[in-house]
Structure formats: C-alpha cells, structure tokens
C-alpha cells in the first residue's frame, strides 16, 4: 500500500529562531503588527510504500530521526494517510 | 482574541524541487528506498491578535500573499485555532 506522510520539522521552543524573528519584524513593515512570535521550520511531504500504516509510520519516523530532523535543535511531528 | 496559525508553504507541483529530489536520493543511502517523491517546503507557526477568527484568517492570508509565499513558485495553506 502507498501512504502519504506530512511532516513538520520545527526549531525547538528553547532554541532561538533568527529567521522567525526576522519575519516577525517584517510583519510590522507591511502593517501586520498583530502578528507575533513567528517561527519558521520545514514542511516535508513524501510517499512511502508499506504493508500497513504502522510499518509506514515506523519508516517515516526513522527517516525523520536519521535524515530530516536535527534532534538537538529541532522537533518533528507527522501524519500519515493511505492514498 | 489570540489565534495560532499553522501555515504550510510548498513548491507548486509543476515546479522542480531540487531539495526534495536530493532527499529522495538520500533515503536510498539509509536503506529507505520505499520512500519516494519527497518535497520540501516551509512550515510557519505564528500568533495573531484579532477580534474574530475570520479577521485573523484575513490577516494570515495577507501575510502569506505579501511575505511568506512566493505565489509564482509556491502555494500555501493554513489552519487557525483560538488559543
């Protein structure tokens, strides 16, 4: 079966996010000072071939741990859906 | 009221995504050749102060159009929830 995973990789809360800080500052310049606390991370979509949803989830989890997220600075979460 | 928006900005389907292609290739090297069609975009979380959810949604939409997404190459979607 084929599954699609939607993964979010975000800088951990205790880590300073300079890109997010810069975007928060730019919001003021376009008249959107109501927008604050911007944090910028990665969104990754991928397809995975697996027998079951549990197996697909394990594969995606391994991909996150070994390749997609830097666990020292980033946390990740994902959702999986059958195609 | 304060709302939190979760925004995904992704390269459009018809646009080549070299970062995603590179990650797809790397999956093979870590023994996850079942993972294909990786696409890499941005995930942005932010807080927005607004009277209603509709108003918050309009502000976030404007932020996406004017600052967060390059509409020629990227598409975006977001969800809003009251804090």
TrEMBL record, chains A, B:
Coiled-coil zones: none
Catalyzed chemical reaction(s): N(2)-formyl-N(1)-(5-phospho-beta-D-ribosyl)glycinamide + L-glutamine + ATP + H2O = 2-formamido-N(1)-(5-O-phospho-beta-D-ribosyl)acetamidine + L-glutamate + ADP + phosphate + H(+)
E.C. code: 6.3.5.3
InterPro entries for the chain: PurS, PurS-like_sf
Cited Pfam families: PurS
Biochemical pathway: Purine metabolism; IMP biosynthesis via de novo pathway; 5-amino-1-(5-phospho-D-ribosyl)imidazole from N(2)-formyl-N(1)-(5-phospho-D-ribosyl)glycinamide: step 1/2
GO cellular component, one term: cytoplasm
Subcellular localization(s) per the UniProt record: Cytoplasm
Domain of life of the source: Bacteria
Record key words, sorted: ATP-binding, Cytoplasm, Ligase, Nucleotide-binding, Purine biosynthesis
NCBIfam families according to UniProt: phosphoribosylformylglycinamidine synthase subunit PurS, PRK05974.1
Family statement: Belongs to the PurS family.
Subunit structure: Part of the FGAM synthase complex composed of 1 PurL, 1 PurQ and 2 PurS subunits.
Protein name: Phosphoribosylformylglycinamidine synthase subunit PurS
Organism: Pedobacter quisquiliarum
Lineage summary: Bacteria, Pseudomonadati, Bacteroidota, Sphingobacteriia, Sphingobacteriales
